[in-house]
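Milestone M4 deliverable, item 7.
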Amino acid sequence: MSFDTAQAVTRAVREGRTTAREQAQKAIAAARAEPFNAFTAVFEDEALAQADAVDAALAAGADPGPLAGVPFAVKNLFDVAGHTTLAGSKIRRGAAPATADAAAVARMKAAGAVLVGALNMDEFAYGFVTENAHDGPTRNPHHPARIAGGSSGGSAAAVSGGLLPLTLGSDTNGSIRIPAGLCGVFGLKPTLGRLSRAGAFPFVHSLDHIGPFARTAADLALAYDALQGEDPLDDLAPPPADPLSARLDALADQPLRVGVLGGWFQQGAFPEVVEALEIVADALQAR
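Output delivered:
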């Protein structure tokens, strides 16, 4: 079972070729059966209610938002109303449930996306492998004997494994970039303060970022646009939204430039990693 892109899903929902409920049911089934240990919780009742609201809005001629009917899931450090925010930790399991959604979760829902569940992570986001002592290790969908990276390993694996089109994670010292790279998906660590972190369990206040995972750059841009906007609850004062999706077609006609960091950035790297990087760089240069 594998999902289409977020763009394809929301287009099919809007055109009546599927429904938000059908897409939510597909994602719930995938989450319950997945072999990667990416999910730590599935919010079935809430997801179906959200999906039904999207379908009802469309039936009434209203626009549910740019992500109408797209299933998504979040690293389990994001507040979800009515559920305890675990942050990957055993000691958080007795904490009171969140009283409101994190800003990022609320904005995804407002854009019409349907929240399906919570995802595995390194405890308190302190790690690079997502081999959680309490929830077990998340495995890499490309090779289950390998790590998914971390600390947002569940977020990357869920997208890479085709369980759903979009997820959210956080990055303090590589926790979006590392699992995205290891699982072969797109992950965005935006400029500090660009997206609201309100309702996301903190690790290092001056370094924490939140961001999306997707299998295409276009899907990543859709999620990024949905997450943008001012928020007085984040003291970094996120700026007004500056949508990116509409500019992608123009950017596609521009020459692609790729930078390869050498020197200090390659010190201590495994030789086979440096060799693989050179092979990719040579291939890109030859195009």
